[in-house]
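Listing S7. Sequence submitted for prediction.
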Amino acid sequence: MNENLIKTLAVGIFGAAALVLLGPSIAAGAKPIVRRGIKAAVKRYAQGMETLAELQEIAEDAYAEALAELKEEAASGGAERAQPTQPTTHAADEVVLAAKEDMGERKRKRRPRA
């Protein structure tokens, strides 16, 4: 999918450059082709964004389920608490906080400077 998007964008950009370089006589005939290329690129981009949103939702659901299981295991007590490998509720919360802080730092680093 990503490869098609790149090819489609390349065709659109090449077509736009051809319009400028080859002049108005050819531009009139090439304009519909360029427009189709750009429309295809926009559609592919929208499809990619939709797919990414679906993947994000799946990942967030899996994360929430895993966190709930960790908290449930830690709260269940008994023999499970005796095992040193079992995380405690406190440890699970620390992991969540560390992940949120890491995500916040990444977002701050990605912001363009004005």
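Caption to Listing S7: primary sequence and predicted structure tokens for the chain studied. Residues 2-110 form one domain. The chain is about 90% helix and 0% strand.
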